[in-house]
Design a protein that fits this description.
Number of strands: 10
Structural class: mainly beta
Oligomer: single chain
Order of helices and strands: EEEEEHEEEHEEH
CATH superfamily: CheA-289, Domain 4
Strand content: over 45%
């Protein structure tokens, strides 16, 4: 008698780099993150959009730096000692995202993410790829490409 072998399908695991803006926790796919820097020197760019803080030099490469709170329509918070700049790679261009503080890298079963709730509306709602329920609340998973478009 022949026994067929059944293979179990492993769930897709995605790692999220989590961070905070105010009391809100967000996550982005770790594959988009190039590096995380402490408050680098930033040169302002006159007449740029309000969410563009300026540009920085990253080992000879010019990187546009964005205040992510302003871009998401959240209240601006002044940079502090825990503020960081997350350098992401979007369409072969590096962009810096200023956040209040960094969280953990969280492995996530892609099947456990849910669509964004209907009460996440406005600017933030258009950038949310999904949400992940945790013991501490929700992690809003951002679509980096939508944020930077």
């Amino acid at each position: 008698m022949r026994r067929d072998r059944y293979t179990t399908v492993q769930p897709e695991i995605v790692e999220l780099c989590t961070f905070y803006i105010g009391d809100h926790q967000f996550g982005i796919n770790i594959l988009k993150v190039q590096e995380i820097n402490r408050n680098p020197p930033i040169t302002t760019v006159p007449q740029s959009q309000e969410f563009i803080v300026g540009v920085m030099n990253l080992r000879g490469r010019i990187v546009t730096v964005i205040d992510l709170a302003t871009k998401l329509g959240l209240a601006f918070t002044a940079p502090g000692k825990y503020s960081r700049t997350i350098i992401v790679n979007s369409q072969d261009e590096y962009i810096g995202l200023i956040v209040d503080r960094i969280g953990d890298v969280v492995p996530v079963n892609a099947e456990k993410t849910e669509p964004p709730p209907v009460n996440i509306d406005g600017v933030l709602g258009s950038f949310a790829e999904g949400v992940l329920k945790t013991g501490d609340g929700l992690i809003v998973i951002l679509d980096v490409e939508a944020v930077l478009a």
